[in-house]
Amino acid sequence: xxxxxxxxxxxxxxxxxxxxxxxHRLGFQFIDTDAVVVERAGMQVAEIFARxxxxxxREQETAVLRSLGxxxxxxxxxxxxxxxxxxxxxxxxxxxxxVWLTASEEVIFERVSRNKKRPLLQTDDPRAxxxxxxxxxxxxxxxxxxxxxxxxxxxxxxxxxxVIAEARxxxxxxxxx
Length: 177
Ligand code: S3P
Description:
The protein starts with a strand and ends in a 7-residue tail after the last helix. By secondary structure, the chain is of the alpha/beta class. The protein has a 5-stranded parallel beta sheet with strand order 2-3-1-4-5, sandwiched between helices. The chain has 8 helices and 5 strands; from the N terminus they run βαβαααβαβααβα. The chain has one domain: Rossmann fold, CATH 3.40.50.300. Bound molecules: shikimate-3-phosphate.
């Protein structure tokens, strides 16, 4: 397995914050797949959804995963919907250790309510949307992940430590560089 750590999970599960911290601690490169899609498209996620629609965004996510396939010593944070495509779930596994960050529905809703950047949650009833999407995606995250961590009650620091300990075990690292 390549020495990469790949964070998956619902919006607001802490993938970017915890991923950044893990990368920093390990001296690994940090890559946010949403940020790569945004950079390549030259527009923000909300604008991509508005102009091109969700299927086009999903195609870009797959293209990003494919283009990152040769990296090593990297930590990836991925968009919450990356697990929707079966081919992505395979690509994620090929990339490295797949860590599913979970959080309770209440915590997720509280976190995602703080900003309005997420196009899928601009509905009449965002609370119900979070519930539906979580129900739909939970089995997909579960199927794609090799390790699961609930971030609801953990400080980012502690969550990062748990993931690093798991990576150490999964990669049989003698020392973490
Ligand atoms: C999405 C999650 C977002 C972003 C896009 C779609 C989703 O990423 O990719 O808004 O389908 O759950 P975050 O999980 O980083 O918010």
